[in-house]
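If your schedule permits, I should be very grateful for your opinion on a structural question. I have a record of one protein: its chain in single-letter code and its fold written as discrete structure tokens. Kindly check, if you would, that the fold set down in the tokens agrees with what the sequence suggests. I remain grateful for any guidance, and I place the record below:

***
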Amino acid sequence: MSAPSNGPRRPTAPPVLSGSIADLTTSGVVVEVDAGEAESLGAFEETALTEAEAWDANGDLDLEGEEAPDGD
């Protein structure tokens, strides 16, 4: 009898490949789509903040991560 492994488990079977969008929520199925389909599903939609937006958002906090007081 071998000792149990704490490492990552490998799947017992290879994933099933599908070209049907209907299979997106099926466990163990990998859906292959072309770039046009992926874009229509929002795969390439950029939602990250710009650097300027990140700096503006940071302006509401002091160095300890607490909200800065509204002072004049």
User: Anything to note?
Assistant: The chain has a mean pLDDT of 77. The two ends are 72 Å apart (CA to CA). Strands lie at 16-18, 29-31. The first helix runs from residue 35 to 40.
